[in-house]
Write a structure and sequence with these properties.
mainly alpha; 44% helix; two-stranded antiparallel sheet
Length: 95
């Protein structure tokens, strides 16, 4: 089964968050299978944010309805609800 573009983005973001870099265990298929719920949640969050938010705009209104976005809310970001679905990131030793 081919991996969609959205899944590829999610996998890359999760790998970067987990700090797994060159660890051969963390193939795209492994991340997609092991953290499938986090991948799906990341795609859903990004889709919702992209529908609502326009790049560079913090608030918008339409008649009596107004929406204001918090700073730091971006599509394709690891949010606290996604962090709960993933293990803690690996710490790399300096030296």
């Amino acid at each position: 089964m081919a991996i969609s573009k959205e899944q590829q983005k999610s996998i890359l973001i999760i790998k970067n968050y987990l700090n797994v870099g060159a660890n051969a265990k963390y193939t795209d298929d492994y991340v997609l299978t092991t953290y499938s719920i986090a991948v799906e949640e990341l795609i859903e969050n990004a889709s919702e944010i992209k529908l609502l938010k326009t790049l560079g705009i913090k608030s918008k209104s339409d008649g009596v309805q107004s929406v204001t976005f918090s700073d730091g809310i971006e599509a394709w970001a690891i949010t606290s609800n996604i962090k709960m679905l993933l293990p803690l990131p690996y710490v790399r030793a300096m030296g």
